Amino acid sequence: MKRYRIRIKRFDPERDRSPGWQVFSVQMGPTERLLDGLIRIKEEIDGSLTFRRSCGHGICGSCAVKINGRNGLACQSLARELPETLTVEPLPAFAVIKDLVVDMRPFFEKNDQVMPYLINSEPPPERERLQVPEDQHRILQSITCIMCASCTSACPSYWADRDYLGPSALLKAYRFIFDTRDRAESERLGRVAHGHGIWRCHSIYNCVEVCPKGIDVAGHISALKRLAIRRRFGR
Q1: Residue 207: domain span
Q2: pTM, whole model, 2 decimals?
Q3: CA dihedral 158, 34, 10, 4 (to 10 degrees)
Q4: Do 73 and 97 have their domain in common?
């Protein structure tokens, strides 16, 4: 077991006028995660500490926070790979509800705008709608998105323009526009090919750097731009 000094940015709107910092000292084994340290703080030191968690295995995206200046999942941050002094903050660009919990409603509303579901009015087959492996592989990375919001909250374009759909929503649009089973390409392109959509992306690549699933988010958005140009969806 090794002792870690964890500095957490805290804010309780019912009590605090502005955010402040609190330092905790906890022990973690080499195979434990930052999430384990946060749970230990809450259970053994300060029960008022508030953060989100669910699966604890990098699937749900609930525990996304800013760790030493970079967005990531607390459940994927192994103690043996962390420095002895840590700074943990809520995700940037979203309103803080309490401590490490942010208001995710704007994020999910942006995703809803791109119609994140399969649209196909053709008579369904007797079983599932099939794809050849090559077509499935084309959308495979985009399917692995866990919607943790790390990419969107790390995007300078989103910081500057809160009407911007953001990397996650545009990745979701890619997932269905390039799905050969879907039939709503034109409608979705119309929803993303505008000044607050794909043309707001400036390929800064923060989204790629922080994605816990290693998705080339910027590359997928570039593919959307090329398709929009071919389909004559201008700025």
Answers
A1: 105-230
A2: 0.95
A3: -130
A4: yes
